[in-house]
Amino acid sequence: MALLNIVKEGDETLRKICKPVREITPRVLTLLDDMKETLIDADGVGLAAPQVGILKRIVLVLNVETDEMYELINPEIVSREGEQNEMEGCLSVPGKWAYTSRPAKVTVKAMNRNGEEVTYSGEGLLARAFCHELDHLDGVLFTDNAVHVLTPEEVKEIME
User: Average pLDDT, stretch 29-37?
Assistant: First the structure.
Protein backbone atom coordinates (compact mmCIF):
# COMPACT_ATOMS: atom_id res chain seq x y z
CA MET A 1 0.00 0.00 0.00
CA ALA A 2 1.04 3.57 -0.59
CA LEU A 3 0.06 7.04 0.52
CA LEU A 4 -1.44 9.01 -2.34
CA ASN A 5 -1.23 12.75 -2.91
CA ILE A 6 -4.53 14.50 -2.14
CA VAL A 7 -5.18 17.11 -4.81
CA LYS A 8 -6.30 20.53 -3.63
CA GLU A 9 -8.91 23.03 -4.72
CA GLY A 10 -7.83 24.62 -7.98
CA ASP A 11 -6.74 21.30 -9.50
CA GLU A 12 -9.01 20.77 -12.52
CA THR A 13 -9.36 17.04 -11.69
CA LEU A 14 -11.75 17.98 -8.86
CA ARG A 15 -14.17 19.55 -11.37
CA LYS A 16 -14.44 16.63 -13.78
CA ILE A 17 -17.11 13.94 -13.95
CA CYS A 18 -15.74 10.49 -13.15
CA LYS A 19 -16.18 7.43 -15.33
CA PRO A 20 -17.85 4.25 -14.03
CA VAL A 21 -15.68 1.28 -13.13
CA ARG A 22 -16.37 -1.38 -15.78
CA GLU A 23 -14.32 -4.18 -14.22
CA ILE A 24 -12.76 -4.74 -10.82
CA THR A 25 -9.13 -5.30 -11.70
CA PRO A 26 -6.02 -5.65 -9.51
CA ARG A 27 -5.41 -1.96 -10.24
CA VAL A 28 -8.82 -1.03 -8.77
CA LEU A 29 -8.11 -3.16 -5.67
CA THR A 30 -4.72 -1.47 -5.22
CA LEU A 31 -6.41 1.93 -5.56
CA LEU A 32 -8.92 0.98 -2.84
CA ASP A 33 -6.10 -0.12 -0.52
CA ASP A 34 -4.03 3.00 -1.21
CA MET A 35 -7.05 5.28 -0.74
CA LYS A 36 -7.79 3.62 2.60
CA GLU A 37 -4.23 4.17 3.80
CA THR A 38 -4.35 7.78 2.57
CA LEU A 39 -7.69 8.46 4.26
CA ILE A 40 -6.52 7.03 7.58
CA ASP A 41 -3.26 9.00 7.40
CA ALA A 42 -5.19 12.22 6.65
CA ASP A 43 -7.61 11.54 9.54
CA GLY A 44 -10.60 12.09 7.28
CA VAL A 45 -14.10 10.67 7.09
CA GLY A 46 -14.23 10.16 3.33
CA LEU A 47 -12.14 10.17 0.19
CA ALA A 48 -13.14 10.05 -3.47
CA ALA A 49 -10.91 8.86 -6.30
CA PRO A 50 -10.76 12.28 -7.99
CA GLN A 51 -9.25 13.65 -4.77
CA VAL A 52 -6.22 11.48 -5.52
CA GLY A 53 -6.23 12.33 -9.22
CA ILE A 54 -8.15 9.28 -10.50
CA LEU A 55 -11.32 9.93 -12.51
CA LYS A 56 -13.15 6.74 -11.48
CA ARG A 57 -16.42 6.41 -9.55
CA ILE A 58 -14.85 5.10 -6.35
CA VAL A 59 -15.23 6.47 -2.81
CA LEU A 60 -14.36 5.43 0.70
CA VAL A 61 -16.44 6.52 3.68
CA LEU A 62 -15.61 5.84 7.31
CA ASN A 63 -18.50 5.17 9.68
CA VAL A 64 -17.02 6.88 12.74
CA GLU A 65 -19.55 5.24 15.06
CA THR A 66 -18.57 1.67 14.13
CA ASP A 67 -15.08 2.33 12.68
CA GLU A 68 -16.18 0.44 9.55
CA MET A 69 -14.73 1.56 6.22
CA TYR A 70 -17.18 1.42 3.31
CA GLU A 71 -15.59 0.87 -0.11
CA LEU A 72 -18.05 2.00 -2.76
CA ILE A 73 -17.59 1.38 -6.47
CA ASN A 74 -20.04 3.12 -8.83
CA PRO A 75 -22.13 4.37 -5.89
CA GLU A 76 -25.48 6.05 -6.22
CA ILE A 77 -27.90 7.47 -3.70
CA VAL A 78 -31.16 5.55 -3.95
CA SER A 79 -33.14 7.37 -1.24
CA ARG A 80 -33.00 10.59 0.75
CA GLU A 81 -35.01 11.71 3.77
CA GLY A 82 -35.23 14.89 5.78
CA GLU A 83 -32.72 17.70 5.99
CA GLN A 84 -29.73 18.67 8.10
CA ASN A 85 -27.65 21.84 8.09
CA GLU A 86 -24.23 21.11 9.52
CA MET A 87 -20.61 22.17 9.15
CA GLU A 88 -18.40 20.37 6.62
CA GLY A 89 -14.77 20.45 5.62
CA CYS A 90 -12.82 18.65 2.92
CA LEU A 91 -9.35 17.15 2.59
CA SER A 92 -9.08 18.84 -0.82
CA VAL A 93 -10.11 22.23 0.56
CA PRO A 94 -7.94 22.52 3.68
CA GLY A 95 -8.72 25.25 6.16
CA LYS A 96 -12.15 26.03 4.71
CA TRP A 97 -15.38 25.11 6.48
CA ALA A 98 -18.98 25.70 5.50
CA TYR A 99 -22.51 24.90 6.56
CA THR A 100 -24.27 22.76 3.99
CA SER A 101 -27.80 21.51 3.61
CA ARG A 102 -27.85 17.74 3.15
CA PRO A 103 -30.43 14.99 3.61
CA ALA A 104 -30.73 13.76 7.21
CA LYS A 105 -30.73 10.15 6.02
CA VAL A 106 -29.55 8.54 2.78
CA THR A 107 -29.30 5.05 1.37
CA VAL A 108 -26.46 4.30 -1.03
CA LYS A 109 -26.17 1.37 -3.44
CA ALA A 110 -22.78 0.37 -4.88
CA MET A 111 -20.47 -2.54 -5.62
CA ASN A 112 -17.87 -3.69 -3.14
CA ARG A 113 -14.35 -4.88 -3.98
CA ASN A 114 -15.73 -8.36 -4.75
CA GLY A 115 -18.18 -7.03 -7.34
CA GLU A 116 -21.15 -7.68 -5.06
CA GLU A 117 -23.97 -5.17 -4.78
CA VAL A 118 -24.09 -3.57 -1.33
CA THR A 119 -26.50 -1.11 0.26
CA TYR A 120 -25.74 1.16 3.22
CA SER A 121 -27.96 3.63 5.02
CA GLY A 122 -26.71 6.43 7.19
CA GLU A 123 -27.93 9.38 9.19
CA GLY A 124 -26.20 12.50 10.44
CA LEU A 125 -22.48 12.59 9.72
CA LEU A 126 -22.57 9.34 7.73
CA ALA A 127 -25.35 10.67 5.46
CA ARG A 128 -23.38 13.89 4.97
CA ALA A 129 -20.22 11.96 4.17
CA PHE A 130 -22.00 9.80 1.57
CA CYS A 131 -23.42 12.91 -0.13
CA HIS A 132 -20.14 14.83 0.08
CA GLU A 133 -18.05 12.04 -1.45
CA LEU A 134 -20.55 11.21 -4.19
CA ASP A 135 -20.62 14.91 -5.12
CA HIS A 136 -16.87 14.65 -5.79
CA LEU A 137 -17.61 12.06 -8.50
CA ASP A 138 -19.55 14.72 -10.40
CA GLY A 139 -17.03 17.52 -9.96
CA VAL A 140 -18.91 19.22 -7.12
CA LEU A 141 -17.18 20.61 -4.02
CA PHE A 142 -18.98 21.17 -0.73
CA THR A 143 -18.43 24.92 -1.05
CA ASP A 144 -20.55 24.91 -4.23
CA ASN A 145 -23.62 23.98 -2.18
CA ALA A 146 -22.72 25.84 0.99
CA VAL A 147 -25.42 27.66 2.86
CA HIS A 148 -22.66 29.69 4.55
CA VAL A 149 -18.87 29.54 4.13
CA LEU A 150 -17.27 30.33 7.45
CA THR A 151 -14.70 33.06 7.82
CA PRO A 152 -11.38 32.20 9.49
CA GLU A 153 -12.59 34.09 12.57
CA GLU A 154 -15.79 32.01 12.75
CA VAL A 155 -13.81 28.79 12.41
CA LYS A 156 -11.45 29.85 15.20
CA GLU A 157 -14.39 30.70 17.47
CA ILE A 158 -16.10 27.34 16.83
CA MET A 159 -12.90 25.34 17.31
CA GLU A 160 -12.06 26.97 20.66
Answer: 98
Burial of 113 (0-12, 13-18, 19+ CB in 10 A): middle
Which of 132, 105, 117 has the alpha carbon at shortest distance from 46?
132
CA distance 98 to 152: 11
Q: How confident is the prediction for the chain on average, in pLDDT? A: 96
CA–CA distance, 156 with 160 (Å, rounded to integer): 6
H or E element, residue 72: strand 68-81
The pTM for the full model equals 0.94
Contacts of residue 129, defined as CB under 8 A and 6 or more positions apart, other chains included, come to 45, 46, 61, 62, 122
Positions annotated as catalytic residues are 133
- Rounded to whole angstroms, the Cα distance separating 5 from 116 reads 29
| C-alpha–C-alpha distance, residues 73 and 47, integer Å | 12
CA–CA separation, 2 and 25 (whole Å): 17
User: How confident is the model over 6-22, as pLDDT tens digits?
Assistant: 999 999 999 999 999 99
At residue 160, the pLDDT reads 77
Residues 72, 61: contact at Cβ < 8 Å?
Answer: yes
Q: Report the SS3 class of residue 152.
A: helix
